[in-house]
Amino acid sequence: MNAGGEDKKKGWSTYATKKTDKFQERRNGLLALVHIAKKEIPLSDDEYRDVIAYWGVRSSAAMSIPELEELVKYFESLGFKKKVSDPRDPGSGVGQIKALQERIRAEAKKLSNGEQRLKGLVKKIAKADDLKACRNIKKLKQVLKVVRLLQDRE
Q1: Could you tell me if residue 91 is left (phi over 0), alpha (psi between -120 and 50 degrees) or otherwise beta?
Q2: What is the DSSP letter of 44?
Q3: Contact by Cβ (8 Å): 27, 68
Q4: What tens digit of pLDDT does each residue of 76-115 get?
Q5: Where are the domains of the chain?
């Protein structure tokens, strides 16, 4: 096979791997929901086995994604509520977020016209209107790194 054919083969393999990863991620998420629902409803092991026997399996691990989705819907009909996280909720990293924001502000003050430059950096790097609105730890670390690079240049 020529080099071009090998490149195409590699591209397909990468695509297939990414698709498989997303498939597995979805499947694992549904399995997690099933097990959370089982505890929250609560179902005994025997009751749970009776429920999944409807799909002709002995374990939810043997179920397809559509079957798992159907099972989650069934559990919702029994009162299970999926907990949907609020995208504005910073979660457990709130302390780290605040610390990074404070550190960035302190470092930016050392720059000439620091506040204005910081606004531009936050808008460009974090795609946020201001530092307070940025809750992404990775983006905050990038902003801090750039602020420090600017300090080194001054």
Answers
A1: left
A2: -
A3: yes
A4: 998 888 775 545 554 556 788 888 999 999 999 999 998 8
A5: 18-77, 91-153
